[in-house]
Design brief:
Blueprint lengths: L11 H15 L1 E2 L5 E2 L3 E6 L1 H5 L5 H19 L8 E6 L8 E6 L6 H9 L4 H4 L2 H5 L38 E5 L4 E4 L3 E5 L6 E2 L10 E6 L6 E6 L6 E3 L2 E2 L3 E3 L5 E4 L2 E7 L1
Parallel strand pairs: 3-4, 8-9
Antiparallel strand pairs: 1-2, 3-5, 6-7, 6-16, 8-10, 10-11, 11-14, 12-13, 12-15, 15-16
Helix pairs in contact: 1-3
């Protein structure tokens, strides 16, 4: 199914890849060390892209559910409820793109999650033909008696507050050993040998899921932290092997396995 649909602007395999990334970005680790993955996913698509799936929408949802369950099982993550995937028409999403929102819902049966998200579509699309063609007689409202005009004192207008000055955003970049610059996205950036990583490494000394860079705060207060994910060869920060979470500063030297990088903030 993932490779059989080609007439739509967004390919099912691209949705599958984003689903895996949403699981990684949304997972949490409890005090007991157990990692819990989100189990309810909504795939937001442009109306034009979604309409092209047609009768293949239900098989696509079924395959996305199976793919999510398989990945969660392979990674050893736990769940708080059943895995549910639904497609949502979203005018804010550009054609050829998709956005996936992941949450953890206890119990979370797939049928109820899917049906609740479909309620957001316009009623005109789901109303039966008989209801659309029915003529409804609306009674004429009674005449409203207008009270006599009473002069009121003039009230000066309330001054409009000046718009707040825009907050300057900080942008982070990883400069790789060959000079390539990779933008560090806001949120969670996964690094490793896995093809699903935000920054995939062609390095046999790097683990499949090697490390993450996470951001906190926003605007000028954004900060970044590097975390080693229990990799085999470790993650180095300024020549020192890290354990746990370490704050990153402009100019810090990083080493993922045998792949060097320099952290820069503008």
């Amino acid at each position: 199914m993932f490779r059989s649909v080609s007439k739509t602007g967004i390919r099912p395999i691209e949705i599958g890849r984003k689903l895996i990334r949403a699981i990684d970005a949304g997972r949490t680790t409890g005090a007991d060390g157990r990692t819990t993955a989100p189990n309810v996913f909504s795939v937001h698509l442009n109306e034009s892209d979604r309409s092209k799936f047609g009768d293949l929408e239900k098989p696509l949802i079924s395959e996305l559910v199976d793919a999510a369950k398989q990945y969660i099982a392979d990674e050893g993550f736990s769940l708080v409820g059943d895995v549910a995937v639904s497609l949502v028409t979203d005018a804010a999403v550009k054609q050829g793109k998709c956005e996936i929102r992941a949450t953890s819902v206890a119990g979370g049966p797939a049928e109820s999650a899917s049906s609740s998200l479909r309620e957001a579509e316009p009623a005109s699309k789901v109303a039966p033909p008989a209801a659309q063609n029915q003529q409804i007689s609306v009674p004429t409202p009674p005449a409203v008696v207008t009270p006599p005009t009473v002069a009121t004192p003039s009230i000066p207008p309330v001054p409009t507050p000046a718009p707040a000055a825009p907050v300057a955003e900080r942008k982070a970049t990883l400069v790789m050993g060959d000079g390539t610059k990779v933008a560090v996205k806001i949120g969670v950036m996964s690094i490793g040998r896995s093809a699903e990583s935000s920054l995939p490494l062609n390095d046999t000394n790097a683990s499949r899921k090697h490390a993450e860079i996470r951001s906190r705060g926003d605007g000028a207060k954004t900060e970044w932290y590097v975390i080693d994910l229990g990799s085999t060869n470790g993650t180095m920060l300024n020549g020192v092997k890290i354990s746990g979470e370490q704050k990153l500063r402009h100019g810090d030297a990083l080493m993922f396995g045998s792949t060097p990088a320099r952290f820069e903030v503008a």
